[in-house]
Amino acid sequence: MPGMRKKGGRGMGLSDEEKNILLEIARKGVRDAVRGVEEPPKDRRIFLHDELMKRKGVFVTLERKGELQGCIGEIWPKNPLWLGVYLHAIDAAIHDPRFAPVEEKDLPYIDIEITVLSVPEEMHYSDWREVLEKLVPHKHGVILKRGYNLATYLPQVWEHFQDKEEFLQNLAIKAGMLPEEWKKSQIFIYYAEEIIKGKFKE
Question: Is residue 50 domain-shared with residue 112, that is, in the same domain?
Answer without folding.
Answer: yes
